[in-house]
Each structure stands twice: as structure tokens, then as C-alpha cells.
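In the previous lecture we treated proteins in isolation. Real proteins rarely work alone, and many bind small molecules. This record shows how such a complex is specified: first the sequence, then the SMILES for LMY7XDAE.
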Amino acid sequence: MTATIIDGKAFAAKVRAQVAEHVARLREEQGVQPGLAVVLVGEDPASQVYVASKGKQTVEVGMASFEHKLPADTSEEVLLNLIRQLNADPNVHGILVQLPLPGHLNSELVINSIDPAKDVDGFHISNVGLLGTGQKSMVPCTPLGCLMMLRDHHGSLAGMNAVVVGRSNIVGKPMAQLLLGDSCTVTIAHSRTRDLPSVCRGADILVAAVGRPEMIKGDWVKPGATVIDVGINRIERDGKTRLVGDVDFAAAATVAGAITPVPGGVGPMTIACLLANTLTACCRALALPEPKGLTV
Ligand SMILES: Nc1nc2c(c(=O)[nH]1)N[C@@H](CN(C=O)c1ccc(C(=O)N[C@@H](CCC(=O)O)C(=O)O)cc1)CN2
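The predicted 3D structure, ligand included, written as C-alpha cells:
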């Protein structure tokens, strides 16, 4: 069997086109331009690339982009002051603080200082609570992107066995909540799970978000299952730096029914969903109808 490749890059382009269409209508009919502020502290090379990409795509869909680049030794006070200003700025509908933050900064404190209505990452404790109780919230971008791809591929997910490998606040836990919301039977597995291969083999939907290169082997995958690989790991192979996921793609693709590649799978959907969340936040702030199909 050879799996269907779920093309996240193409899917993300469709989501961005939908966002751009809504933004154009908002600007024309309401005279409103959604705005996204991205805050980067320090010079982590991967974060710099992601932030640049966010800024570029924000402008491409017709939104206003506000980039704030702060030095690595920025104090918590300075960062919290900036967030206070952005919370109060009516031109800013979404605020994102790029993670990871330098070690001297308290990420939880910083994230929880963002106005929950502008928390387009969905990491604020209020949004976490709302999602966990099935209420309207801002939904974290990576899990939202995974859910969109799963719904697109399967239609209804009701009754499917979903295994999420990884228990992070950013991906694993919200992913499990979203799958539960779509009536899957959900297991969260992790590095201490007993007999992880057999737990994975029970999955109709297997989401790998452990951050370990190619940890999920081909024979851990149930024949015909859908595999969503959230991992982005840089490894050295054959004298070259390569980007691989948390799944042994070549082996899993011979067993799975469908699989996301790395690169070109979940990653591009993360930024597309950030733009979708910014549009949603803008519509909610102005009590305008929310775009359909761009949130849960
Ligand atoms: N505040 C946040 N910080 C971080 C998040 C987040 O959602 N919010 N997620 C990640 C990084 N990230 C976005 O910020 C991100 C990661 C990867 C991609 C992506 O498109 N990846 C490409 C490969 C790109 C490459 O070569 O590195 C792919 O998978 O095809 C987009 C966004 C951590 N921080």
C-alpha cells in the first residue's frame, strides 16, 4: 500500500486565499484592516525565519503586520510594557510572542499578559480553559491546522480512535481536545507510555508531536491509518542537514492510508491558521460575522 500524501503546502495556500478574500471584503465594506503584531525576543535563527515568514504572509493576505524585534537581554518589564501597548492598540487584532523565549523570561507570565481576545496563538490560560470546556476560544494554530486537514480528508471523524503522541501545551493537549470535540476516542501517549508501539497500532488517526526524529516506526502504524506528523527536526544525514518529522516517513507511507510529509505538511498550516485566527479575532472584536470553515 502507498499512502495518500496530504499536501499541507497546497492546503495552506487555499486557507490563505480564503483569508485574503475575507480581508478584502472587510476592508472594502467595513473600512477595517485586520492587524497582527508579532514579537520576537532574541536571535534564534529558526524563530527569525518563522517570524519573517509570518510578516510576509500577513501582508500578502492584505492584513497589517507589526513586527517588534527585541534584543535577547530584554527585561520582563520591557516586554510586558510592549504587550500592554499592543493590548490597547485598536489597529492590532492579534498578538503573538514567538516561542521559545530566552530563559530569563517567564513564558507563562508573558503569554497570560496578552489580551485573550487578541491571543491568536490560543496559549492564554483563558483560551486553554475555553477550549477544554468546548466553548468558543482562540485555537492554537498547529492543532487547528491538523484538524482542518483531517476533516478535509475524512469528513466526519466521529468514532475514530485517535492517538496523540506528545503532551505539550502547544500541540499535544489542544490537539487531543480538538479530536475529542470531533467525537474521536482519544488517547494521549508520551515518552513514559507503556508499550507505545502497540498503543500507536490501535490508532485510526495517529498524531506524532514528540520532537524526536523518526521515532514512530512503520510497524507502529495500523494499515490504512491517517498519520499526521507535527515534528520538525534537523538532522545530519549523508553529510547534509535534513529536515525530518517524528515519523519514519518512508516506512510509514507503505502502511498508512494517508500521511503528512515533513517539510510541506503541518508546518505551512501553522502560519495559515495564524492568519485565519487573526481574521477571526478581528471579526469578534468588531462583532462582525465570523468567516466559516476557518475556525472550529
Ligand atoms: N508563538 C509561537 N511560537 C511557536 C509556534 C507557534 O505556533 N506559536 N510554533 C513553532 C514554530 N512555527 C511557528 O511559529 C513554525 C514552525 C514551522 C513552520 C513551517 O512552515 N515549517 C516548514 C519547514 C520550514 C523549515 O525549513 O524550517 C514545513 O514544515 O514545511 C512554520 C511555523 C514554534 N514556535
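Summary for your notes: The CA atoms of residues 245 and 262 lie 5 Å apart. The chain has ten helices and eleven strands.
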